[in-house]
Amino acid sequence: MLASRPHMAGPKPKRATAKAGEEREAPPSEEIRIPASIAERLAEKKKEQASVAPKEPKRLVKLRIRRQDANDRPDTRRWEEFEVPFVAGMTVNTALERIRKDPRTATGQEVAPPVWEASCLEETCGACAMLVNGRVRMACSTLVQEVAPKNQRITLEPLSKFPCERDLVVDRSRAFESLKQVKAWIAIDGTQAIGKGPRESQDLQAERYGFSRCMSCAACLEACPEYGGARPFVGASAINQAHLMNLHPTGSMQKVERLESLMGEGGIADCGKAQNCIDVCPKDIPLVDSIGAVARDTTKRMLFGWLFK
Ligand code: SF4
Ligand code: FES
User: Fold this and answer.
1) What is the domain extent for residue 253?
2) Which is higher by pLDDT, 217 or 1?
3) Whole-prediction pTM
Protein backbone atom coordinates (compact mmCIF):
# COMPACT_ATOMS: atom_id res chain seq x y z
CA MET A 1 0.00 0.00 0.00
CA LEU A 2 1.35 3.45 -0.86
CA ALA A 3 1.65 5.48 2.33
CA SER A 4 2.94 8.73 0.88
CA ARG A 5 0.77 11.21 -1.03
CA PRO A 6 1.27 11.11 -4.78
CA HIS A 7 3.36 13.91 -6.18
CA MET A 8 1.31 17.03 -6.97
CA ALA A 9 2.34 18.98 -10.04
CA GLY A 10 2.62 22.80 -9.96
CA PRO A 11 2.52 25.21 -7.03
CA LYS A 12 0.62 24.25 -3.93
CA PRO A 13 -2.95 25.57 -4.25
CA LYS A 14 -3.96 28.20 -1.75
CA ARG A 15 -6.48 27.14 0.85
CA ALA A 16 -9.82 28.86 0.27
CA THR A 17 -10.76 30.90 3.33
CA ALA A 18 -14.22 32.33 3.93
CA LYS A 19 -15.84 34.12 6.72
CA ALA A 20 -19.15 32.93 8.10
CA GLY A 21 -22.03 33.92 5.76
CA GLU A 22 -19.71 34.29 2.72
CA GLU A 23 -19.90 31.73 -0.09
CA ARG A 24 -16.90 29.46 -0.26
CA GLU A 25 -15.01 29.33 -3.55
CA ALA A 26 -14.57 25.85 -4.99
CA PRO A 27 -10.92 24.76 -4.75
CA PRO A 28 -9.12 24.54 -8.10
CA SER A 29 -9.18 21.04 -9.56
CA GLU A 30 -5.95 19.12 -9.06
CA GLU A 31 -4.51 16.79 -11.65
CA ILE A 32 -3.06 13.67 -10.10
CA ARG A 33 -0.03 12.36 -11.91
CA ILE A 34 1.16 8.86 -11.29
CA PRO A 35 4.95 8.61 -11.35
CA ALA A 36 6.25 6.85 -14.46
CA SER A 37 7.80 3.98 -12.50
CA ILE A 38 4.49 3.14 -10.78
CA ALA A 39 2.52 3.47 -14.05
CA GLU A 40 4.95 1.04 -15.71
CA ARG A 41 4.57 -1.47 -12.88
CA LEU A 42 0.76 -1.19 -13.03
CA ALA A 43 0.75 -1.76 -16.80
CA GLU A 44 2.98 -4.83 -16.37
CA LYS A 45 0.70 -6.20 -13.67
CA LYS A 46 -2.33 -5.72 -15.94
CA LYS A 47 -0.59 -7.58 -18.76
CA GLU A 48 0.32 -10.39 -16.40
CA GLN A 49 -3.25 -10.71 -15.13
CA ALA A 50 -4.66 -10.70 -18.66
CA SER A 51 -2.37 -13.56 -19.72
CA VAL A 52 -3.11 -15.65 -16.58
CA ALA A 53 -6.94 -15.11 -16.47
CA PRO A 54 -8.75 -18.17 -17.91
CA LYS A 55 -10.60 -17.27 -21.10
CA GLU A 56 -14.21 -18.36 -20.90
CA PRO A 57 -15.41 -19.93 -24.14
CA LYS A 58 -18.07 -17.71 -25.71
CA ARG A 59 -21.40 -19.56 -25.79
CA LEU A 60 -23.11 -19.48 -29.16
CA VAL A 61 -26.80 -20.15 -29.68
CA LYS A 62 -27.27 -22.44 -32.66
CA LEU A 63 -30.49 -21.99 -34.60
CA ARG A 64 -31.80 -23.95 -37.56
CA ILE A 65 -34.51 -22.02 -39.38
CA ARG A 66 -36.92 -23.24 -42.03
CA ARG A 67 -36.95 -20.73 -44.87
CA GLN A 68 -39.37 -20.23 -47.75
CA ASP A 69 -39.29 -17.22 -50.04
CA ALA A 70 -43.04 -16.87 -50.71
CA ASN A 71 -46.36 -18.63 -50.42
CA ASP A 72 -46.27 -19.70 -54.08
CA ARG A 73 -42.63 -20.78 -53.97
CA PRO A 74 -42.60 -24.09 -52.09
CA ASP A 75 -39.58 -25.01 -54.21
CA THR A 76 -37.54 -22.49 -52.16
CA ARG A 77 -38.17 -24.39 -48.91
CA ARG A 78 -34.83 -24.97 -47.21
CA TRP A 79 -33.01 -25.00 -43.88
CA GLU A 80 -30.46 -22.42 -42.83
CA GLU A 81 -28.28 -22.51 -39.74
CA PHE A 82 -27.17 -19.52 -37.71
CA GLU A 83 -25.10 -18.86 -34.61
CA VAL A 84 -25.55 -15.87 -32.32
CA PRO A 85 -23.79 -15.00 -29.04
CA PHE A 86 -25.73 -16.14 -25.99
CA VAL A 87 -26.96 -13.48 -23.59
CA ALA A 88 -28.47 -14.43 -20.24
CA GLY A 89 -32.26 -14.15 -20.36
CA MET A 90 -32.44 -14.03 -24.14
CA THR A 91 -35.59 -15.28 -25.84
CA VAL A 92 -36.03 -16.94 -29.23
CA ASN A 93 -37.30 -13.57 -30.47
CA THR A 94 -34.08 -11.87 -29.26
CA ALA A 95 -32.00 -14.49 -31.07
CA LEU A 96 -33.96 -13.81 -34.27
CA GLU A 97 -33.39 -10.07 -33.82
CA ARG A 98 -29.63 -10.71 -33.58
CA ILE A 99 -29.72 -12.73 -36.79
CA ARG A 100 -31.69 -10.02 -38.55
CA LYS A 101 -29.03 -7.43 -37.68
CA ASP A 102 -26.28 -9.53 -39.25
CA PRO A 103 -27.88 -12.21 -41.41
CA ARG A 104 -25.01 -14.62 -41.97
CA THR A 105 -25.29 -18.38 -41.78
CA ALA A 106 -23.04 -20.40 -39.47
CA THR A 107 -20.70 -20.89 -42.47
CA GLY A 108 -20.45 -17.11 -43.00
CA GLN A 109 -22.69 -16.86 -46.05
CA GLU A 110 -24.66 -13.63 -46.24
CA VAL A 111 -28.40 -14.34 -46.69
CA ALA A 112 -31.71 -12.47 -46.58
CA PRO A 113 -32.78 -11.78 -42.97
CA PRO A 114 -35.34 -14.28 -41.69
CA VAL A 115 -38.94 -13.05 -41.55
CA TRP A 116 -41.26 -13.65 -38.61
CA GLU A 117 -44.11 -11.83 -36.90
CA ALA A 118 -43.97 -10.17 -33.47
CA SER A 119 -45.59 -7.13 -31.97
CA CYS A 120 -46.20 -6.88 -28.23
CA LEU A 121 -43.13 -8.89 -27.07
CA GLU A 122 -45.03 -9.74 -23.90
CA GLU A 123 -47.22 -12.70 -24.87
CA THR A 124 -50.30 -10.62 -25.49
CA CYS A 125 -50.81 -10.30 -29.25
CA GLY A 126 -50.23 -13.91 -30.30
CA ALA A 127 -48.35 -12.91 -33.46
CA CYS A 128 -45.06 -14.69 -32.75
CA ALA A 129 -46.41 -18.25 -32.53
CA MET A 130 -44.06 -20.72 -34.24
CA LEU A 131 -42.76 -24.23 -33.86
CA VAL A 132 -39.76 -24.27 -31.54
CA ASN A 133 -38.14 -27.70 -31.57
CA GLY A 134 -41.39 -29.07 -32.97
CA ARG A 135 -43.68 -27.61 -30.30
CA VAL A 136 -45.83 -24.54 -30.76
CA ARG A 137 -44.55 -21.70 -28.59
CA MET A 138 -44.44 -17.91 -28.44
CA ALA A 139 -41.02 -16.70 -29.65
CA CYS A 140 -41.22 -13.63 -27.41
CA SER A 141 -41.67 -15.57 -24.17
CA THR A 142 -39.61 -18.67 -24.89
CA LEU A 143 -36.23 -18.50 -23.20
CA VAL A 144 -33.27 -19.90 -25.11
CA GLN A 145 -32.05 -21.41 -21.85
CA GLU A 146 -35.36 -23.23 -21.46
CA VAL A 147 -35.38 -24.88 -24.89
CA ALA A 148 -31.63 -25.45 -25.18
CA PRO A 149 -30.31 -25.81 -21.61
CA LYS A 150 -27.27 -27.77 -22.79
CA ASN A 151 -26.67 -25.54 -25.77
CA GLN A 152 -28.54 -27.84 -28.13
CA ARG A 153 -29.50 -26.58 -31.56
CA ILE A 154 -32.90 -24.81 -31.66
CA THR A 155 -35.12 -25.58 -34.63
CA LEU A 156 -37.63 -22.96 -35.76
CA GLU A 157 -40.44 -23.68 -38.20
CA PRO A 158 -43.66 -21.91 -39.21
CA LEU A 159 -46.98 -23.28 -37.90
CA SER A 160 -47.81 -26.32 -40.01
CA LYS A 161 -51.62 -25.99 -40.07
CA PHE A 162 -51.67 -22.68 -41.97
CA PRO A 163 -50.29 -21.62 -45.36
CA CYS A 164 -46.72 -20.32 -45.09
CA GLU A 165 -46.41 -16.74 -46.36
CA ARG A 166 -42.68 -16.47 -45.91
CA ASP A 167 -40.12 -18.08 -43.58
CA LEU A 168 -41.87 -18.17 -40.18
CA VAL A 169 -44.93 -16.11 -41.14
CA VAL A 170 -48.20 -17.92 -41.79
CA ASP A 171 -51.65 -16.83 -42.90
CA ARG A 172 -54.06 -17.49 -39.99
CA SER A 173 -57.18 -16.25 -41.82
CA ARG A 174 -58.88 -19.60 -41.33
CA ALA A 175 -58.81 -19.14 -37.56
CA PHE A 176 -60.43 -15.70 -37.92
CA GLU A 177 -63.08 -17.09 -40.27
CA SER A 178 -64.00 -19.57 -37.52
CA LEU A 179 -64.52 -16.68 -35.11
CA LYS A 180 -66.91 -15.14 -37.63
CA GLN A 181 -68.73 -18.46 -37.97
CA VAL A 182 -69.48 -18.60 -34.23
CA LYS A 183 -70.31 -14.87 -34.03
CA ALA A 184 -67.61 -14.23 -31.45
CA TRP A 185 -68.83 -10.76 -30.61
CA ILE A 186 -71.70 -9.03 -28.83
CA ALA A 187 -74.07 -7.52 -31.40
CA ILE A 188 -75.14 -4.43 -29.51
CA ASP A 189 -73.39 -1.66 -31.39
CA GLY A 190 -75.52 1.24 -32.61
CA THR A 191 -76.10 4.98 -32.45
CA GLN A 192 -79.47 4.97 -30.72
CA ALA A 193 -79.84 5.03 -26.92
CA ILE A 194 -81.03 1.62 -25.79
CA GLY A 195 -80.80 2.07 -22.04
CA LYS A 196 -78.80 0.15 -19.55
CA GLY A 197 -77.77 -3.41 -20.26
CA PRO A 198 -78.30 -6.31 -17.87
CA ARG A 199 -76.02 -6.35 -14.86
CA GLU A 200 -73.20 -8.86 -14.55
CA SER A 201 -72.29 -10.26 -11.15
CA GLN A 202 -68.69 -10.26 -9.94
CA ASP A 203 -68.69 -14.04 -9.83
CA LEU A 204 -69.72 -14.19 -13.47
CA GLN A 205 -67.08 -11.60 -14.38
CA ALA A 206 -64.47 -13.72 -12.64
CA GLU A 207 -65.66 -16.85 -14.46
CA ARG A 208 -65.64 -15.10 -17.84
CA TYR A 209 -62.18 -13.62 -17.25
CA GLY A 210 -60.63 -17.08 -17.40
CA PHE A 211 -62.05 -17.60 -20.91
CA SER A 212 -61.40 -14.05 -22.09
CA ARG A 213 -57.61 -14.11 -22.29
CA CYS A 214 -57.43 -15.67 -25.76
CA MET A 215 -54.97 -13.81 -28.02
CA SER A 216 -55.78 -15.76 -31.22
CA CYS A 217 -52.28 -17.17 -31.38
CA ALA A 218 -53.61 -20.44 -32.90
CA ALA A 219 -51.36 -22.59 -30.72
CA CYS A 220 -54.38 -24.73 -29.73
CA LEU A 221 -55.23 -25.20 -33.40
CA GLU A 222 -51.68 -26.17 -34.31
CA ALA A 223 -51.63 -28.83 -31.59
CA CYS A 224 -55.11 -30.23 -32.33
CA PRO A 225 -55.11 -33.52 -34.30
CA GLU A 226 -58.62 -32.74 -35.59
CA TYR A 227 -57.69 -29.33 -37.00
CA GLY A 228 -56.18 -28.48 -40.35
CA GLY A 229 -56.05 -29.67 -43.95
CA ALA A 230 -59.47 -30.43 -45.43
CA ARG A 231 -61.05 -31.11 -42.01
CA PRO A 232 -63.70 -28.47 -41.23
CA PHE A 233 -63.31 -28.42 -37.42
CA VAL A 234 -63.33 -24.83 -36.10
CA GLY A 235 -61.02 -25.67 -33.19
CA ALA A 236 -60.80 -24.84 -29.50
CA SER A 237 -60.29 -21.07 -29.76
CA ALA A 238 -63.56 -20.45 -31.64
CA ILE A 239 -65.54 -22.74 -29.32
CA ASN A 240 -64.03 -20.97 -26.30
CA GLN A 241 -64.99 -17.57 -27.71
CA ALA A 242 -68.56 -18.77 -28.34
CA HIS A 243 -68.79 -19.85 -24.71
CA LEU A 244 -67.33 -16.53 -23.50
CA MET A 245 -69.94 -14.55 -25.45
CA ASN A 246 -72.78 -16.91 -24.43
CA LEU A 247 -71.95 -16.36 -20.77
CA HIS A 248 -72.27 -12.59 -21.07
CA PRO A 249 -75.79 -11.37 -20.13
CA THR A 250 -76.01 -9.25 -23.29
CA GLY A 251 -74.07 -11.65 -25.49
CA SER A 252 -76.43 -14.47 -24.54
CA MET A 253 -79.06 -12.85 -26.80
CA GLN A 254 -77.25 -14.55 -29.73
CA LYS A 255 -76.63 -17.78 -27.82
CA VAL A 256 -78.93 -19.86 -30.00
CA GLU A 257 -77.26 -18.68 -33.21
CA ARG A 258 -73.85 -19.46 -31.78
CA LEU A 259 -74.86 -22.90 -30.62
CA GLU A 260 -76.48 -23.72 -33.94
CA SER A 261 -73.33 -22.66 -35.79
CA LEU A 262 -71.50 -25.30 -33.76
CA MET A 263 -74.05 -28.08 -34.21
CA GLY A 264 -73.23 -28.80 -37.84
CA GLU A 265 -70.19 -29.87 -39.78
CA GLY A 266 -66.91 -28.74 -38.23
CA GLY A 267 -68.65 -27.99 -34.94
CA ILE A 268 -68.41 -29.30 -31.44
CA ALA A 269 -68.99 -32.95 -32.45
CA ASP A 270 -65.67 -32.91 -34.35
CA CYS A 271 -63.66 -32.41 -31.16
CA GLY A 272 -61.69 -35.62 -30.58
CA LYS A 273 -61.03 -34.77 -26.90
CA ALA A 274 -57.28 -35.14 -27.32
CA GLN A 275 -56.87 -32.16 -24.94
CA ASN A 276 -53.62 -31.07 -26.62
CA CYS A 277 -55.08 -27.56 -26.77
CA ILE A 278 -54.99 -27.13 -23.03
CA ASP A 279 -51.36 -28.30 -22.87
CA VAL A 280 -50.09 -25.70 -25.32
CA CYS A 281 -52.31 -22.67 -24.62
CA PRO A 282 -49.88 -19.97 -23.43
CA LYS A 283 -52.66 -18.19 -21.55
CA ASP A 284 -53.75 -21.27 -19.58
CA ILE A 285 -57.33 -20.91 -20.71
CA PRO A 286 -59.51 -23.73 -19.32
CA LEU A 287 -60.39 -24.88 -22.85
CA VAL A 288 -61.67 -28.26 -21.73
CA ASP A 289 -64.22 -26.46 -19.53
CA SER A 290 -65.43 -24.17 -22.32
CA ILE A 291 -65.61 -27.05 -24.83
CA GLY A 292 -67.50 -29.14 -22.26
CA ALA A 293 -69.95 -26.32 -21.56
CA VAL A 294 -70.65 -25.76 -25.27
CA ALA A 295 -71.08 -29.52 -25.77
CA ARG A 296 -73.71 -29.58 -22.99
CA ASP A 297 -75.49 -26.50 -24.36
CA THR A 298 -75.62 -27.87 -27.92
CA THR A 299 -76.95 -31.21 -26.65
CA LYS A 300 -79.74 -29.40 -24.75
CA ARG A 301 -80.49 -27.35 -27.84
CA MET A 302 -80.63 -30.47 -29.98
CA LEU A 303 -82.97 -32.27 -27.56
CA PHE A 304 -85.25 -29.45 -26.49
CA GLY A 305 -84.70 -26.71 -29.09
CA TRP A 306 -87.95 -27.54 -30.86
CA LEU A 307 -89.80 -26.41 -27.72
CA PHE A 308 -88.64 -22.83 -28.27
CA LYS A 309 -89.25 -22.50 -32.02
S1 SF4 B 1 -57.23 -20.54 -26.78
FE2 SF4 B 1 -55.08 -20.30 -26.07
S3 SF4 B 1 -53.87 -21.40 -27.61
FE4 SF4 B 1 -55.89 -21.09 -28.51
S5 SF4 B 1 -55.72 -19.20 -29.70
FE6 SF4 B 1 -56.46 -18.63 -27.65
S7 SF4 B 1 -54.61 -18.16 -26.47
FE8 SF4 B 1 -53.93 -19.26 -28.27
S1 FES C 1 -44.96 -10.74 -29.83
FE2 FES C 1 -46.99 -10.69 -29.03
S3 FES C 1 -47.26 -12.66 -28.22
FE4 FES C 1 -45.20 -12.67 -28.87
Assistant:
1) 173-187+204-308
2) 217
3) 0.80
